[in-house]
Specification:
The chain has 134 residues and is of the alpha+beta class. The chain has 3 helices and 7 strands. It has one domain. The strands form 2 sheets. A 5-stranded mixed β-sheet has the order 1-2-3-6-7. Strands 4-5 form a two-stranded antiparallel sheet.
Length: 134
Amino acid sequence: MRYIITQTQLHQVAYKYLDSLFEDSNSEKKQNPYNPDAYSIELKTPKRADTISYYYYGPGEYDDDIDGPFQEATKHYGVGHLHIYPDIVDTLRRLVKSRETKVMDMIADWFSEKYNVNIDEVSIFPHRKTPTVY
């Protein structure tokens, strides 16, 4: 049997699951010693290796990749990256019966609201060897 629920209700289900998953987790904000505007936040589940990691690269920080016509590193202007452990995405995806990108957006919205951060990019990390199909 299928039920029709609103987007708000769908988000509430996802948020309750994430709140319960990370209920006993200690989040820790770590400053980058080389750039005072850059930092990271990491959430770990107490019993498993599931994590959600957030990295904020402050204005003026360069990445390690050298590309472009002048072989220069790319300068960041304040970018937030969210890395989500694959099992978290898969479990929530099965729970709400939604596509992977929608689930990743819900997790990013939850994290953004909970920690008051801006998220520009969301990815699954570590990367899967093969895509998961349900």
